[in-house]
Amino acid sequence: MNTILHLVREAEANVSRAPVPDRRDWMQPTPPRRAIDLTDTPVVRSMLRGTWFLGTLRWFAGLLLALGIYTALFKPTTNGAFTLAVFWGLFWPFFTAAVTPTLGNAFCAVCPHGAMGRWLTPRGLGLRIPPWARRMHLGLGLILLTYWLGAYAMPGGFARMPILTGWLFLGWTVAAAAMFLVFRDMAHCKVLCPLGNVLTATARASSLWITTDKQSCATCRTFDCAKACAWALKPFRFEAENTMRDCTLCMACVQACPSVKVEARAPGHQFRRPVVRVNRNDAWALLTITAVAAVGIQFLHGLNHTPWKAAMPWNTAAPWFVATFGQPAWLSWSGVLCLLLGVTLTAAAAVPGYTAAARVAGTSRRDAFAVLAPGQAPLACVAMLSHTMVFFLTVYSANIANETVRLLGIETGAFAPLIDRRTAMWLMIFEVTPYIAVTWSLWATWRRAAVLIPSAPTRRRLAVAALAAAPIWLYVAVYAVKIVAFASGSGHAHH
Prior knowledge:
Layout: H1 2-14, H2 23-26, E1 35-37, H3 42-49, H4 52-74, H5 81-103, H6 106-110, H7 112-120, H8 131-135, H9 138-153, H10 157-160, H11 162-182, H12 187-192, H13 196-202, E2 208-212, H14 214-219, H15 224-228, H16 238-241, H17 252-256, E3 260-265, H18 280-300, H19 313-325, H20 333-361, H21 365-372, H22 377-382, H23 385-407, H24 433-452, H25 458-468, H26 470-487
Antiparallel strand pairs: 1-3, 2-3
Helix pairs in contact: 1-20, 4-5, 4-11, 5-23, 7-11, 9-20, 13-18, 18-20, 18-21, 18-26, 19-20, 20-21, 20-25, 24-25
């Protein structure tokens, strides 16, 4: 503590002499030295520069979306297993959780809503997105209200209620269509999509990157890559700005210009360089995901499955809420309190953490938060991977296969799960993912501290990173308590 206080005083004394560099001076357009040009590989080049591969995947995803909604709302005689398996097993969170840490916004590339938007937007009114809409975190708020609040208030509710799931995805689809028809530049994906802000923020940890040939761009006067982008992005600026912003990896720019290429780089390569015109929405999205999908979920699906369940504060306080406000059959006050406690504790860790980090760095808390918060991206997108992968392999994979053949009217025996959890001990390997997430996030936060104060001594940068990692330390503490609780007696393990 004395060391930190000393660093704070030193930073405050030196702020006037060594101010934090202006963002314009941070720009480092030189790309990483190690990168694999995927568009230089014949097979991959055919898949990315042609339209057949992604087009086929989009049609397939659209068919699954339509069938999932149809069977939920218009096939009441079925048990809804297909709907539940597609939406809560395949689309979310399996596909998004599995590909985001490596391929970034790959789900957006095949999203049926995005494909619908590319057809509807040119035929719509073409109004400009109001500036305030970009600042309101509408998409993040939508997923919190329509999914996460329901997931906590009705634990397992979505996973057991196909009709509710069908109406939810139908509502999202109608809202997307309305946005595409009214506004330009794929406004729904940027503003209202429940996953748009989340995936854009967490994709900072990925390795897939779109870049351009500098020499070709220097003489280009047609800007084919920018003209091809339905999102009104400029791919030739991605490298210099160290961000692909709202890019959904639709590959339209890659297909329009041979000088645009797709590279595989080291995971988290963006953390090493500054971002020009930092988007603070990403920082808020990552902090929110950490609170809801990392910390809070350890309460709901972690400590609630240990011998200490009855002693947990959300469970001891729940009876008072039931007695005071009542409890409908569908509501769980315990789950609601898990959510509130996760958000409260994360905020209680983040505010003093970033405040102290800003003082040590000699900059404002606003700038420190915007630059350092992206270090939480690995934790936000990797921490839940264990539970997601295991559940898909042991439950939902079989449900998708069985319900698909039933919808097609094919008489066959029931498909067994891909993996039997009782005998496949190798599934334990997925339990290392939380440790990978924490280690990766701490490294990313350290790299971001080096970006914030590049010329500062190592000890000072280390202090900034340690303080900014307060939400990560909170997750570590909660996870450690869960491990101790499991070790104290029998419990049903959730990751």
